[in-house]
Structure formats: C-alpha cells, structure tokens
Specification:
Blueprint lengths: L3 H6 L5 E3 L8 H9 L4 E4 L5 H14 L4 E6 L5 H11 L3 E5 L7 H6 L3 E6 L2 H10 L4 E4 L5 E2 L5 H11 L4 E4 L5 H9 L4 E4 L13 H9 L5 E4 L7 E4 L2 H12 L3 H8 L2 H6 L24 H16 L2
Parallel strand pairs: 1-9, 2-3, 3-4, 4-5, 5-6, 6-8, 8-9
Antiparallel strand pairs: 7-11, 10-11
Length: 307
C-alpha cells in the first residue's frame, strides 16, 4: 500500500508500532521494521544510555528504518533528543509536549519528526513547527489518552493540515486500517496488537490479560489528575477510580500510579501494576510474529479498499 507515509519513511506498509514504555525496545522495533513497518523504541522515563543501547540492539537486527518515541515530560528528554541525533535514528515520534525546540537539530540530521497529537489545534502547530506528519491518537488507545475518539479526530485533522495523518487508537485489524484510510489517514499506528507479537518481551501475564480481555475490560484512570490513562481493569485500576470518586485527592492518585506500568510489564504483577492496553484489546486473540500481524492486517485492508 503506497501512501505519502510509505514514501516519506521508505517502508513497505504504512504502519508504525506504538511507543509503549517499558515494553517497546530494540528487539520489537527491529521485528516490526523487518516486517515492512516502522518499529519504535519507547524511551518513556528511561535514561539516555538505555535508549542508546536499545538503538544499537535494533541496528544489529535490522537495516530498515526504525524510530524512537520520546516522552517530552521525561527529565531525560533533552539528552535523548541528542542521542537520536548522534545515532542517526530515522524517525522520532513524540508525546506529552511540544517538540518544537528539538526539531531544527533533528532536521539537520535528516530525522523525520512525527508528533502524537490529541487535537486539531496541536496538529496545526506541529505542521507549522516543521513536523513531517502527525499521529492522531484517539481516546480508545492504551496508555495516556485525550478525550476525542479516533473516528471524529482523524477526519478533522486531515482537513486541517497538509502533511500525512496517521490514525492511532482502536486499530488492530484490516477493518480498522480500512476505516482509518476512509477517514483521511495515510497510515496507522498500532500498539495493543503488538503486545501479543512473539517478539514483544512484555511479561507473559501481561500478554495473558490482553488475550483474555473482552470489549468492556478497559477503563480510564487518573482523570482527576488531568492525565488519564487507559488500562485493563484490575484491582489497582478499580482502587484508583474509587479513590478519585471518594476524595479526588490527586496527590494520592499520582502516588498510586507511579511506577506501576513497570510493575506489570516487567515484573508481571497484574494486580498491583498498570496493564495499559486499548479498547480494541478484545479483538486480540493470538500471539503471532510481527510479520504475520502486519501481513494479515494489510491483506484484509487491501481487500476492503480494493487497492
């Protein structure tokens, strides 16, 4: 499927793997890139040296384009911004902030800059700042979310900017890809389905939670803090939401949330950790190689779109 995104990034399929902190590392990124998409290393709150190590791992496993997702709220963001420039990473996606001050340096190094945006206004700002494309993420997505859905946000952003739009949130099969393209997207970002890629090193208990999830099994926590996060329901998530209803004590809520993704993703504590996943988790039913996931999704999308 040739689109402006495949031409921009030099890839076979217009798909980017989501930047999932504590989960998306060099091995998964390389597997997705080898399969024809763009794999991402998620910097999250990790230090710059860890990101550099993961970039080297990815380079040892693929000669295809791959990228790094930088959470701009991280105290390490300035160092990581320089690491990706030094290491010649081809793509940078960003979240939780405005990457404007880093864009000139990245552009000097030939890096394609693709911010994640939750609104039309931010998409327009990012285009003016020099972004090569934008990822439009709906509230269906796993992890940190905005308020608007993918279905309503994608066409509005597509009408407002001239750069390629990548739809994210609620996409896990070819039907989702076809729908995104009908709404004006020229590519998709997929996170939740790649949680169940063979190459994904997230804890097996985390994978099991995704595979067993039903359509109503996710909820948003942390709305009282202004930073809502979509997770699969578990004792921790219920405790957070109950606390928000009872007291609205944002400090206590923040304390409950700190470090809990790592607890689930790395340690496998699915009761006391945050099992971040999108609303589409109920559609994910098997563990597959990243290559099979991508080929299966796009075969169906092409059939539906007749391309």
């Amino acid at each position: 499927m040739n689109t402006r995104l495949t031409e921009l990034l030099g890839i076979q399929y217009p798909i980017i793997q989501g930047g999932m902190a504590w989960i998306a590392e060099g091995n998964l990124a390389a597997a997705v890139s080898n399969a024809g998409g763009v794999g991402l290393i998620a910097a999250g709150g990790a230090p710059a040296q860890w990101v550099r190590e993961q970039i080297k791992i990815a380079k040892s496993l693929t000669d295809k384009p791959f990228g790094v997702n930088i959470m701009l709220l991280s105290p390490y963001a300035p160092e990581i911004a320089e690491v990706v420039a030094q290491e010649g990473v081809q793509v940078v996606t960003t979240g939780a902030g405005n990457p404007g001050k880093y864009i000139p340096r990245w552009k000097e190094c030939g890096i394609k800059v693709i911010p994640v945006v939750p609104s039309v206004a931010l998409a327009i700002r990012m285009e003016r700042a020099g972004a090569d494309a934008v990822i439009v993420e709906g509230t269906e997505a796993g992890g940190h979310i905005g308020e608007l859905t993918t279905m309503v946000l994608t066409p509005q952003v597509a009408d407002a900017v001239s750069i390629p739009v990548i739809a994210a949130g609620g996409i896990a099969d070819g039907r989702g890809i076809a729908a995104a393209f009908m709404l004006g997207a020229e590519g998709v970002q997929v996170g939740t389905r790649f949680l169940c890629a063979e190459e994904c090193k997230v804890h097996e208990e985390y994978k099991r939670m995704v595979l067993e999830a039903k359509d109503t099994d996710t909820m948003a926590t942390g709305r009282s803090t202004g930073h809502p996060v979509r997770v699969i329901k578990n004792p921790l998530a219920r405790k957070i939401v109950e606390l928000e209803k009872e007291s609205g004590n944002t400090e206590e809520v923040e304390k409950l949330c700190t470090g809990t993704l790592r607890l689930a993703a790395v340690d496998g504590d699915i009761k006391n950790g945050s099992v971040m996943a999108g609303q589409i988790a109920g559609l994910v039913k098997k563990i597959q190689p990243a290559k099979d996931i991508i080929e299966e999704m796009f075969a169906k999308a092409q059939e539906l779109l007749k391309v």
